[in-house]
Amino acid sequence: MKREVRFAEIAVVGGGPAGLCAALEAARAGARVVLLDRQDHLGGQLIKQTHRFFGSKSHRASQRGFKIAEALTREVASHPAVEVHTGATVFGFYEDGVLGVEQKGRVFYLKPARVIVATGAAERTLAFPNNDLPGIYGAGAVQTLVNVYGILPGRRVLMVGAGNIGVIVSYQLLQAGMEVAAIVEAAPVIGAYWVHAAKVRRAGVPIYTSHTIKEAYGKREVEGAVIWQLDGDGKPIPGTEKDLAVDTICLSVGLSPLIELLAQAGCRLAYVPELGGHVPLRDENLQTTVPGVYVAGDAAGVEEASAAMMEGALAGLHAAYSLGYGQQDYEARRAAIREQLEALRSGPVGEKIRRGLSKAIIQL
Amino acid sequence: MRIEQHPILEFRRGKKVKFIFDGKEYEGYEGETIAAALHAAGIRVMRESPVLHRPRGLFCAIGNCSSCLMTVNGEPNVRICTEKLREGMVVNSQKGKGVLYEKRS
Hints:
The complex is a heterodimer of chains A (about 375) and B (about 100). Chain A is α/β, with parallel strands linked by helices and about 375 residues long. Chain A has 2 domains: about 220 residues, FAD/NAD(P)-binding domain (3-Layer(bba) Sandwich); about 130 residues, FAD/NAD(P)-binding domain (3-Layer(bba) Sandwich), CATH 3.50.50.60. Chain A is about 30% helix and about 25% strand. In chain A, helix 1 runs parallel beside helix 7, helix 4 runs parallel beside helix 5 and helix 7 runs antiparallel to helix 8. The longest helix of chain A is centred in the last third of the chain and has 18 residues. Chain B has one domain: Ubiquitin-like (UB roll). Helices cover about 5% and strands about 30% of the residues of chain B. Chain B is built from 1 helix and 8 strands, in the order E-E-H-E-E-E-E-E-E. In chain B, the strands form 2 sheets. Chain B has a 5-stranded mixed beta sheet, with helices on one face. A 3-stranded mixed beta sheet of chain B has the order 4-3-8, with no helix packed on it. Chain B is globular and about 50 Å long. The mean pLDDT of chain B is about 95.
């Protein structure tokens, strides 16, 4: 069968915060970019973030996530050097550097000189009896239902995980009119920023640290959950069970980078728990061990959207530079982005990320 | 359950459309996913697991996990968390793995 292959300068796979910024930065440097996203809208998971962002002042801090998504989408859509394909799933990365793309039942092939993979991450689940019952969701899934479609999945929810996502989503569910029965956290401390945790505590939601879910129950859907306390070694303590009548359980137990395409491309991977699992090894410019293939955002290691945007920008900048674009401004622009990224990852909050990155960043 | 009032967000819903789920007629809005329309109607069970026949619902809602596969207009294994609702769609709970091309006698 004859297949037509289109050539492109830079292909960006994924139109979330990292992909959008990668496309914009490369296009501004002068390169022509094809941006592919499997959803029918750009913005990735920013579209469901209703809270205001922290981060550096110069980088959209104090804006709400969905507003950032709208602004970036507008900039990308109006840039003449960016060709946007939504509803387009990149299903394969072939040996000769060809991407297979399915769009609305049609298949086409693309051979880009540079590829930036910004595919994001997937929500993790947790092992406990009946964890497959309908009514048990990833916290992000419920955020999508509530904040994008305006639909409540139930009336009363148990949140598992008191990291930023767990606590922020709990607050958003309260705002939307759900009752939050409790938040449980296996660690002895709350992982979320205090600003967020204080908000849900003020609303009267108990946060049980050193607690986890023992089981869910219900005939065909969730009707309740049992939680119990963990000792200093993380072992459950019998006799500490609490029975909660909830119809919804949200799991906010972390994300795993979506690295399938990078694995297909032959990028060397490393298991780095601090970054969420298997991630590609890469250099300071986000280039992987396969020349011309870059990674950015959660696919490079699970972090915040602000960091994803800057990683995207760095990858886009270097990809364009390596093709001969933006030679004059390159050093200054690169230094500026790196400075912002380092500021974001500084201090005790960024400690884990820095430790993870030290295992993932190599000299090529 | 649909949210009618929200302190930050305003939900702009599309045109009202009718669809069939397991033989019964329901209403939803154009532009929302099948999963959203079903949840608005209080339906959270999407399929049955192929081996143990356990009920399965939505998990990730963004097309990653394949927990919500249903049969839509006769086509099995459709991720209804990303598939948009359209007028007259016939949506069925999926039992088993689904067959793309039925044997014709």
